[in-house]
C-alpha cells in the first residue's frame, strides 16, 4: 500500500483538477465534507447491496427516513413523503431521476394509447434546462424531433411563462401529438406556467438539482412554489449539500407510476407503501439498476452531523459571498452582471465601455477567462447566453471562504487590467497609425 | 461523530443483512476488500467529477488504463482496447451497460430505418439471462411484445444453440420485424449460436457479470470464446473481483456507436480515440449520467495491491470450495445437484428418494432453506428451474474459507435430518393411521 500511495502522490495528484480547492468556481459545486466522507466509509465498509428490503432492511428503511427528512427540509408538500402516499429514493444523478420519471410517464401514456404512441409523445423544457434532460428523453426512445425547447427571456428572469407553455402544447395537440412531460428547472417556472401541464395530464418534473439546497432556507422556499402540482421533484445533495459524490434525491407523488415502469416482477405491488404506512419496499424497482449502494447512511451522517440550522448557515454563507461579488462587479463600470444572481451563482463579463462591438467583447472575455485559469489561482468556466460569452462564478465549495472570493475578484481585475492595457494600447496604436497615415497621405 | 457512531452500532448494524459474512452464500457475491476500501476512500476524499477529460485528466486516463488492463486479464481481443480501436468505461451496474449498448444499437438502426422502426425492433436473450436485460430493453422503449426469451435445456448446458437463435430471428424477419440485439450470458452461448447474429448486423452483447472474473484464469478463458464477434462485453468487478460496490466494466468494439447515442454535444467526435492513440475522451458520453465518480482509482488500487496472480489464486480458491461442496452433495444420496456447477455456484436440492412427488420435494426444500436461514448461521437463496425449487450456494465472499463451506454443509445435513425425521415421522404416522383405520373398518 505504501508504494501505491507513493504513486498516488507522484502520478495521480498532479493530474487532478482540484474540485475541492476553495478557489474552484467552475462547472457546478461537488461538495465533500468530513461527514460525507465518514458516511461513505461506513457504506463502503459495510458493503451491503440493499436492492430489496430483505437484502439489508435497515438500508432501505434508513433511506426512506432520510428522503422524508430532506423533503421536510425543502418544505415539499406531504404528498411527496411516504406517510403522504408518495415517496423518495436516492439515485446517483439527475439524469437517472429524469430517465426513470420519463419512463414512468411514457409507460403510463402507453397503457392508455398503445406502444405506437411513443412516436407521437412530446417532451418540453425551457432553454435554461440542462442538456441532461434531452439526453434522458433520447435514452427512453422519445423521437428527437419531439423535443421542445421553450424560449425564455431576461425580462421574465429566464422563467417559463404560461403563454409560452400553452402555445407550444396546443400546437402539438393540434398536430395530433401527445404532450407527455415538462421538465421545469426551479426558480425559472412560475406557478402560472404549470396550468396547461395539469390540464393535459402531462407529467411535471421539477429539477431542483442545485437550487433545492437553497430551499432549505425559508427565504428561498418560494422557488419551490407550485411543487404540490408536480409529479416528481429531484435535487442533488452531492452538489451543494456537503454530501460526497454521488447522491441525488428523487421524490414522486405516485410511486406506483415509477414501479410499474421499472419493476422486473409482477409481485412488486405487494411492496409499495400505502398512505400512512411505511411498508417495506424494494428499491430496485425505483431505479435503473438492480444493485445499489447504501447511500442512505452517507446522507444520514451529513444531516446528523451538521443539522438543519448548520446546513442553512452553510447555504447562507455562500449566498452572502456571491452577493458581495455581485455588488463588486456592479460597482466596477468595466464589468457587468449579465444574468440576475441565482443564489450563489454570478454570471458576468468584462464590458469596458459602450461602443465596443460584441465580437470584441466576447474575445476579451475568452482571453480573460483563459488568463485567470492559466494563473492556477482559480478556475472558472463559461456559457453562452443570448450570443454573449459569459463567465460564471459558482460559489459553493465546502472550503471556500470570503477571502477566496475577494481573491478571485482581485485576480479578475488584475487580468482585466493586463488585457485592457494591451487592448487599449492596441486601440491607441491603431488610432496613432491611422492619424499618421492620414497626415502622411496629405503630405504625399 | 461519537454519538452518530453509537447510533450506527445500536440501530444500523442489527438491521443489516451481512453481505460480508463469510457464511453469506445468497443472491450474488458483492466483494469488499481492504484495497477496494482504500480505493474508495481516495475516490471519495479527492471527490473530483471526471465527466470530461478536462475536469480531472488523470481520472479519465487512469480509467482508460485500468479497463485496458482488465480486458487483458480476461483475455479479451485487442479490438476492445483503446489501442485496438475500441475502448472501455466503468459504469455502476450491468443494467447501465445494457441500457447504453441497447441505446447505441437502437439509434444505429434508427439512423438507417427511421424512428418508427423502434416499434419493429426485437431483442433476444436466453432464459438464463437475468431480468435486468428485459428491464433495460423496456427503459429504451423496445415494445415488451418484442422481447424474445430463447429456450435452453439441461442437455446443452443451458446454452443457446445456433438453431434456436436462427429460428427465432428468421421468424421475426419473416414478420417484417427488425432483430436488433442479442444478450448472451457467458458460458451459455457457444460460438455457433452467434452466426445468425452476425449475418443480420445485430448487436451482440456478452454479459460476463459474474463469470468474467473466472476468465482471468486460463483454464476458464474458453467461456469467452467468440468474444471477437461481439459488439460489447460487460463484467462486474464489484461482484467477484474484490472491488467494493459499485464497479462494472463495459467494453465496446466501436466507441462511436456509444457516443453517438449518448453525447449531448456535436463536438464529441473530436474526443473519440482513434486506433493506436489514447486521445482524451469525455466519459459523460459513454454513460447515462453527466456526472460520475473517480471509480478508476478504486479498481486500480485493487489490481495493484493483489496483482494478476493474486486474483487468480482468489478465484481458484472459491472454485475449489465449490467443487468440494458439489462432490459432497453428489456423494449424499439424499441430495442432488440440479444444474452443473457454474464456477463457484452450486445449485442443488434435497431429493430424499425417488417416488416422492415433486410438490413434496419443493415443499421440503422450501422448509430446508427457511430452516437454514432462520438459524442465522448461513444465508442462501433459491431459484426455480424447470419448475423445481433449487437452493443456491454462491461461493465467493472475500472472507469465505473452506471451513465456512464445510460448516454450511453440516448445517444443511443437520436441518435435513430434522426435516426428514419430521417428514418420515409424519409418513409413518399416516401409514399407521391408515393401517389402524383399515383394521377398524374391517372390525366394524
TrEMBL record, chains A, B:
Keywords: Decarboxylase, Lyase, Pyridoxal phosphate. It comes from the Eukaryota. The keyword Amino-acid biosynthesis does not apply. One of its GO terms (biological process) is carboxylic acid metabolic process. GO terms for molecular function: carboxy-lyase activity; pyridoxal phosphate binding. One of its GO terms (cellular component) is cytoplasm. The modification N6-(pyridoxal phosphate)lysine is found at residue 239. Its cofactor is pyridoxal 5'-phosphate. Gene3D superfamilies: Aspartate Aminotransferase, domain 1, dopa decarboxylase, N-terminal domain, Type I PLP-dependent aspartate aminotransferase-like (Major domain). PANTHER family: GROUP II PYRIDOXAL-5-PHOSPHATE DECARBOXYLASE, OS10G0400500 PROTEIN. Belongs to the group II decarboxylase family. This is Tyrosine decarboxylase. It comes from Miscanthus lutarioriparius.
